[in-house]
Design a protein that fits this description.
mainly alpha
Amino acid sequence: MTEEEQRELALNGPGGIGIRAKGYRLMDIAWVLIACAVGWMAWELKAHAGDSDKQSAAIVKSITDANSAIVQALKEQQAVAKESNAETVRVLQRLTRTQAEANCLLDPLMKNRADAREFCKRVSGRDER
């Protein structure tokens, strides 16, 4: 072995913790460090993917909970609107029948009839019998 291959590489960190490599080529040490860095990045990526799955599920749940209140309010509003529309239809039907009865009474042929009012009620459908 040459003198270059016998050199020692020492890395010291805080608190006196460190590593020493003796008799290795510098590139071999670099490959080990690169492999460790790639492994650490893969582990971090996997941990991040797991965290983001949990966060995505939490976001979807919160959106679903928020939307369920809106959906319930819209259903209640729809029921009120349907009831209001039904009442409006009944009122319009009554007005239509009243208008038909008024038109019948204004007919010149009805002026000489004694039972014109009862006849027009029956014809217009306002008769409650």
